[in-house]
Amino acid sequence: MIKIKAYNTPIYNYLRKYAEENINIFHMPGHKLGRGVPGQLAQDLLQLDVTEVEGTDNLHYPEGIIKEAQEKAAKAFGADKTFFLVNGSTCGVQAAVMSVCARGQKIIVGRDSHRAVASGLILSGAEPVFVRPGFNEEFALSAEIKPESVENALRANPDATAVLITRPNYYGICSDIEKICSLVHSYGKILIVDEAHGAHLAFSDRLPPPALEHGADICIQSAHKTLPAVTQGAYLHVKGNRVDMDRLALNLAMLQTSSPSYIIMAYLDIARELMEREGRTKLEELLDINSWFGREIEKTGVYKVLPAAKMGIKAIQDPTRLVINLKALGISGYLAEKLLREKYRTQIEMADYENLVIITTVADTRESMTELLKALKALAGDEFRPGREYKAEKLRSILKGMGTGEEDGSLKLLPWQAFYSKREEISLMESAGRISADIITPYPPGIPLLYPGEIITGACIQYIAGIIAAGGKVNGITGNDGIRVIEEDK
């Protein structure tokens, strides 16, 4: 009998164990542990791990195979030019902000943006002008950025250089990109769209239109989130002539590694090819399956699925992103996520205080969705007690206030100024009125509650404490419930 040597490799060992548990997964990356990639394209990955030698081209000065692959991607996604990103959408967002703003210049930013925008503001030295999303009362989550809010910001800040919005947001909600794009361009500004969660939108007419379709100047997409690509693989697309292409390329070369992964680049190419070959057919099948799933899960009388119909004609939700509200279940989303994993071998993408977020891609099947339905029904039977309702009203009220600006802490320092200021750690519960020195972010979804330089409000403290008490995680809060703030003059 051959004895297999056990290696002292905790990361590798756990990942192998996770793969072998045969968990029903509804999280990124979109290839779902390789289930969405043909076997011949998923073999011998280490043989793809090469460097810049004769014939392999150079990501930062592409002339050969990388240039050809980027051109094919540009054509597939409707861009004039596409850059491959091996450091995820984060570096694309950072490079975009740095390419349209210099220190002291203004940029209009959706307040529901990912923390990558905060780091882009720090790196560029730009001044953010925040535009706040709407609030979905039924599901207690941030909704779309309204075109009139963007126009109000443009009128009030004629010196702003650009507008940056996130679309879709983590819940799949898509703002009216046609109207926003038209507005931004009518004011002579550049529109950047963080479309990290929307790389698949170009491949089905039943989905919300991609931002490039209506002329967004820069569009950043995480291929690994919704396409059969590997983690950190992303695209940055450019359309039109408003963007300084040389400056953008230089910023990308500064922010991305000088030793890019050929595995990541190969799968950016593979993802594009697979979606062009069979993406439309598979998305049609997936959308039909998800429609069936939504009807079946709501028959339980316990769960609600976020519907497109209640968000207006132009603000629509991506039906591949299933958002399930379980307020009536009597438990938090955080606990539901834990129970699904421990008792029903199901791992979702994200939970918030009262919703589950499920990512479905072309790698999913009716079988995987049927198993998810069984798990959720079993969870309802396990935990639900008639008449018992999770008491989330207080936190709902706080979240709504923060989302709409009613409880907004004002920006006292620009993010870059706060980042370079002296800081100290104090108790979260004693931090009201102090200036945050960190990006404070429930993770996921990675949307900052506090930017560096913002005043910490009592409502924000209550919300952070509520998330932690319910089992959620908040990045930027230290292990002893501390928070780093700007040091005050003695």
From TrEMBL:
Q: Which organism is it from?
A: Ruminiclostridium cellobioparum subsp. termitidis CT1112
Q: Which GO terms describe its molecular function?
A: arginine decarboxylase activity
Q: Which InterPro entries match?
A: Orn/Lys/Arg_deCO2ase_major_dom (IPR000310), Orn_Lys_Arg_decarboxylase-I (IPR052357), Prn/Lys/Arg_de-COase_C (IPR008286), PyrdxlP-dep_Trfase (IPR015424), PyrdxlP-dep_Trfase_major (IPR015421)
Domain Orn/Lys/Arg decarboxylase C-terminal: from-to ranges:
421-468
Q: Which residues form a coiled coil?
A: none
If you read the UniProt record, what top EC class would you report for this enzyme, in one word? lyase
- What name does the UniProt record give this protein? Arginine/lysine/ornithine decarboxylase
Q: Which UniProt keywords apply?
A: Decarboxylase, Lyase, Pyridoxal phosphate
What Pfam families is this protein classified in? OKR_DC_1, OKR_DC_1_C
- Similarity comment text for this entry: Belongs to the Orn/Lys/Arg decarboxylase class-I family.
Q: Which domain of life is it from?
A: Bacteria
Determine if Lyase is one of this entry's keywords: yes
Listed EC numbers: 4.1.1.19
SUPFAM superfamilies with a match to the protein in the record: PLP-dependent transferases
